[in-house]
Description:
Shape: globular
Number of domains: 1
Radius of gyration: 13 Å
Distance between the termini: 22 Å
CATH superfamily: DsrEFH-like
Order of helices and strands: EHEHEEHEHEHE
Number of strands: 7
CATH class: Alpha Beta
CATH architecture: 3-Layer(aba) Sandwich
Helix content: 40-55%
Largest sheet: 5 strands, parallel
Number of helices: 5
Strand content: 15-25%
Low-confidence stretches: none
Amino acid sequence: MARLLIHITRGPEDPTRAALGFLVAKAAVEDGHEVSLFLAADAVQLLREPVLDNLRGLGTGSLRDSYDAIVAGGGRFYVSGMSSQTRGIGADELEGKPAELALPNVLVRLAVEHDTVLTY
């Protein structure tokens, strides 16, 4: 199967686009692909519990449902450290999640290592 990287920069201000990235990741995991997501800019807020529980996109469903399926399927999250710091998100908010803070060089490495990169 393929290795897929999904780079999401949209956050709660654009719920449909943000949830669409997660929905595509969920579909890829369910099809047996290896999936990594890199969240940057406003997308770093998507892993906050209140956002996961309440965000729904038009025609893209619940962010929580997609997130849970991605995690169950072995998906991995990388969260921009600089974007997180700017938005007041610390490592404590990622605790217990399959996610890690990452710098831009990690995004570059992931893009090179994966077969396909999608951006939302």
